[in-house]
Design brief:
globular, 4-stranded parallel β-sheet, about 220 residues, alpha/beta, Rossmann fold
């Protein structure tokens, strides 16, 4: 696909968001000579670190009664119960996934939710949003980030499911890292902190086009 599109180290910017960010990191570890730059958007480098953040930070931001009910449903494995999603949508997704009023969620996000392949999602992630219990449970490449020399932008958001401090750390582990924090954004900060996200992304791309490897954003 890359060669068919004529993409190479002179023109290939690879952006991966969320799970795509995990894939982008894996790609860079193996094929970074093909990249002009790497952009990791709202994706940590460690499933165990993500699980710890979800349990110790995200969960504590929910109303205790809501969290207790969510955990009770999870303990019973009752993930298909409509009540489970009724609790998650306003209390988790609207806090950490997209902070726009839910009636204003953009069409691409709604289509993604409506077409989500639960079989694959549960197999890889696990059924709970509070950490990872699927095949990716032990995935951790943090100690390999130092081998990535391509200019790398790591995008984080203050209200994300992904720990912004971990993402800042990632930007310091790669050899030529830049860090963009979306103060008003969540996991989908390209929507709920769009101006900050897009202006930072464009500034990074233009800087790399002009030969810079690190950018202050």
């Amino acid at each position: 696909m890359r060669t068919a599109l004529g993409l190479n180290k002179d023109n290939f910017y690879l952006l991966g968001h969320s799970w795509g960010g995990w894939l982008a990191q894996q790609y860079a570890l193996k094929y970074q000579d093909n990249l002009k730059a790497l952009i990791i958007s709202n994706a940590m480098s460690s499933s165990p670190a993500y699980k710890k953040y979800a349990e110790e930070v995200l969960g504590k931001q929910l109303d205790p009664a809501v969290l207790e009910e969510i955990k009770a449903l999870e303990a019973k494995g009752d993930f298909e119960n409509p009540r489970y999603m009724e609790l998650l949508l306003p209390n988790f997704y609207n806090k950490f996934i997209c902070r726009l009023p839910m009636e204003e969620w953009p069409d691409p996000l709604m289509r993604a939710f409506n077409k989500l392949n639960q079989t694959i999602y549960v197999m890889m992630q696990g059924p709970s949003e509070f950490g990872v219990s699927g095949k990716l449970e032990h995935w951790d490449i943090g100690n390999q980030l130092g081998t990535i020399a391509a200019p790398t932008l790591v995008i984080a958001a203050k209200h994300d499911t992904m720990n912004p401090e971990h993402l800042k750390w990632m930007s310091e582990q790669v050899q030529n890292g830049s860090y963009l924090l979306c103060e008003n954004g969540s996991h989908m900060c390209m929507y709920d902190d769009q101006q900050r996200y897009m202006s930072g992304l464009i500034k990074f791309i233009k800087a790399v086009d002009h030969g810079e490897k690190k950018v202050v954003l």
